Amino acid sequence: MESALPVILVLVKVLLVIVAILTFVAYLTLLERKVLGWLQVRLGPNRVGPWGLLQPLADGAKLLLKEEITVSGANRIIYLAAPLIVVTCALVPFAVIPFAKGLGLESIFGQAAAKFDLNTGVVADLNVGILFIFAISSLGVYGVVLGGWASNSKYSLLGAIRAGAQMISYELGLSLSVLGVLLLAGTLSLVGIVEAQDSVWKWYVFRQPLGFILFLIAGSAEIARTPFDLMECENELVAGYQTEYSSMKFGLFYLGEYAHLLFLSALMTTLYFGGWQGPILPPIFWFLAKTFFFVFVFVWIRGTYPRLRYDRVMTFGWKVLLPVGLLNVMATAFVYTFWRQYMS
């Protein structure tokens, strides 16, 4: 029993994080619809439960009860596997996001929590955490591409091709925007990056403002949020790669999309806004407050800007984001080297 205790505690920790993420994702749909309603001077969902709070449960029940349809001529195995790939690649990177200093598990599990280092506010503190994130999150596009190809539909295939091209162009800009933070922090561990921002003026948004702007734009394109949602462009592709999906298979794609939104907001909080750092209030409060602020920003952008034309999206990725990202990395390296050599 003693040897199995660490495994049990890790599973409990993972289960708590997954339940919390899925709950947040479910209510992100309600939050987005409410905010869009306010921006468009209408009410939004307000019928299911008080203030519409049970709307996510009603939406989930509706998807579960809808008829399961598999398209004639589809590659059945890949068609079914694609949504699972998208959801898995959206949830796994949360394992290295540090959301607090501690979980308070010692009050539940006593000394065992401290003995097995399970009280840290992160599922797995990897010393190459940022590389792990890019490795896993970049695999998510395979689910989109495979789902579009396996659906045996020209609209789905066009959406999948767009997703692949867009991911390649904006992944480069996203990676370059983070390199400046890594140069300043001197570590690939997300916990180390947060600990390096131990005061407000050390937040990397002030030391890497250009990198933050690049990350915001490239990240929005990476998760295909408006104005970069070209792979599911309704007026051109019906629903893009999701066109031939129904019931919970469509629901899993939907879950992956909002999990990506929550993850990107959490990653921006971690890299540029000090993560859990903040005065007086508990660390988990500051992390959630900053994360949901960025969620609100992405919803605000969706309700404000129109969808861009596809050729302009690709041109912007290759001819603007990529060179500006390279310039930011070179400038950061130059200033950092000069400061280390002559000013310290």
From TrEMBL:
<feature type="transmembrane region" description="Helical">
    <location>
        <begin position="7"/>
        <end position="28"/>
    </location>
</feature>
<keyword id="KW-0812">Transmembrane</keyword>
<dbReference type="GO" id="GO:0048038">
    <property type="term" value="F:quinone binding"/>
</dbReference>
<keyword id="KW-0520">NAD</keyword>
<dbReference type="GO" id="GO:0005886">
    <property type="term" value="C:plasma membrane"/>
</dbReference>
<dbReference type="Pfam" id="PF00146">
    <property type="entry name" value="NADHdh"/>
</dbReference>
<keyword id="KW-0997">Cell inner membrane</keyword>
<feature type="transmembrane region" description="Helical">
    <location>
        <begin position="280"/>
        <end position="300"/>
    </location>
</feature>
<keyword id="KW-1133">Transmembrane helix</keyword>
<keyword id="KW-0560">Oxidoreductase</keyword>
<feature type="transmembrane region" description="Helical">
    <location>
        <begin position="252"/>
        <end position="274"/>
    </location>
</feature>
<comment type="subunit">
    <text>NDH-1 is composed of 14 different subunits. Subunits NuoA, H, J, K, L, M, N constitute the membrane sector of the complex.</text>
</comment>
<protein>
    <recommendedName>
        <fullName>NADH-quinone oxidoreductase subunit H</fullName>
        <ecNumber>7.1.1.-</ecNumber>
    </recommendedName>
</protein>
<keyword id="KW-0472">Membrane</keyword>
<keyword id="KW-0830">Ubiquinone</keyword>
<dbReference type="InterPro" id="IPR018086">
    <property type="entry name" value="NADH_UbQ_OxRdtase_su1_CS"/>
</dbReference>
<keyword id="KW-1278">Translocase</keyword>
<dbReference type="GO" id="GO:0003954">
    <property type="term" value="F:NADH dehydrogenase activity"/>
</dbReference>
<keyword id="KW-0874">Quinone</keyword>
<keyword id="KW-1003">Cell membrane</keyword>
<feature type="transmembrane region" description="Helical">
    <location>
        <begin position="77"/>
        <end position="100"/>
    </location>
</feature>
<dbReference type="GO" id="GO:0016655">
    <property type="term" value="F:oxidoreductase activity, acting on NAD(P)H, quinone or similar compound as acceptor"/>
</dbReference>
<comment type="function">
    <text>NDH-1 shuttles electrons from NADH, via FMN and iron-sulfur (Fe-S) centers, to quinones in the respiratory chain. The immediate electron acceptor for the enzyme in this species is believed to be ubiquinone. Couples the redox reaction to proton translocation (for every two electrons transferred, four hydrogen ions are translocated across the cytoplasmic membrane), and thus conserves the redox energy in a proton gradient. This subunit may bind ubiquinone.</text>
</comment>
<dbReference type="GO" id="GO:0009060">
    <property type="term" value="P:aerobic respiration"/>
</dbReference>
<feature type="transmembrane region" description="Helical">
    <location>
        <begin position="128"/>
        <end position="151"/>
    </location>
</feature>
<dbReference type="InterPro" id="IPR001694">
    <property type="entry name" value="NADH_UbQ_OxRdtase_su1/FPO"/>
</dbReference>
<comment type="similarity">
    <text>Belongs to the complex I subunit 1 family.</text>
</comment>
<feature type="transmembrane region" description="Helical">
    <location>
        <begin position="172"/>
        <end position="194"/>
    </location>
</feature>
<feature type="transmembrane region" description="Helical">
    <location>
        <begin position="320"/>
        <end position="339"/>
    </location>
</feature>
<feature type="transmembrane region" description="Helical">
    <location>
        <begin position="206"/>
        <end position="224"/>
    </location>
</feature>
